[in-house]
Amino acid sequence: MELTMIGAGYVGLVSGACFAEFGAHVTCLDIDESKIDALNNGKIPIYEPGLDDLVKKGVEAGRLSFTTDFASSVGRADLIFIGVGTPTRRGDGHADLKYVYAAAKEIAKHLQGYTVIVDKSTVPVGTARQVHRVIKEENPDADFDVASNPEFLREGAAIGDFMRPDRVVIGVESERAEALLRELYRPINLIEAPIHVTNLESAELVKYASNAFLATKISFINEISDLCEKVGADVHAVAKGMGLDGRIGRKFLHAGPGYGGSCFPKDTLALVRIAQEHGTSSRIVESVIEVNAAQKARMVGKIRQALGGSESGKTLAILGLTFKPETDDMRDSPALSILPALFEKGATINAHDPEGAKEAAELLPEGINYCDSPAEAMKDADAVILMTEWNVYRGLDLNEVKSLMKGDVFVDLRNVYEPDQMKKAGFQYHCVGRT
Asked: Do domains 208-289 and 293-430 have the same CATH topology?
């Protein structure tokens, strides 16, 4: 089966490499020549565990290639996946679909024979029908269908999610399109992963509804964590007690500095705008967004309070910058809200992140120091702020940390350590939802 993946970013590259592993012949196409040149030279533009090896394997097997040329790849494809970015549109919060429609117009010029064009990007309800309209207007004689096949990849675990999915969602309008997509995903039948086939609109909404629900769980437990601090409860115990209820489940009940990343902030805001556009309310999701913003602001106050009321003149060691471990993605990371607030009030910031420092330096204020190791960041620090729970920060030698620091404040925004352990080690320890 011949596939063309439009967009060689996170979604396109991971999906393309995994489809190649399934046995399909995949061409990843991108208009960014530097990205394609890098990929053709074996350089992966994003950090995702295992992706470099999977790409190398696909290329060496002759099943994965990279190009900027629509004409050479679109015409021979059985399926064409649109995996371009859909960032939040400035000014109104809607998903910006200009890259999707630009890809559709270019695809239309080169179609040959029956082809299924698949929306893989996260797109608002109704986008598949608009893609169909755009292609039909550009090429009235084209023989094609448009389908929706949203991705559910977690950054840092994307390859496992693709190979062993909870479900595959397919939105189609024809038996031909369904049959082709079922054949493509036939390898996952070996693990009995469910393939959920529905109409276009339902498939498009599944992605937004799923992400909004998971974001709701995060904002809910973050609100509960604040209450726990006020009443003397332990959010870990509360979350465990909740999660043992099979109707609730324990996943995403982890208190912290708020959610970030490429999906939750963008998709919750887009869902609110979709609801407004169709004359219905989404008050729960609106509250989720508000709570998440408030949680990030609350973390600034928590750090300030731990420093005795002012960060001015204090040296802070920041451990972790990305929104989660095992990725270099800084999009909507809590660090982007928290660190500028501290820096502007006179704190010296020495930051370390295993993969995200380069990206962070482009987004955070000039003057923040990026260190090559946790030890370098912690040297002579008044306080350590654990922002992202990378494995390298989970088993710190507390005696070494104490000897490196000038002060003794340790603010753990991910609840990695136990309060009793940290206090016994001589730290003024502050965490989220625990006392």
From this structure: no
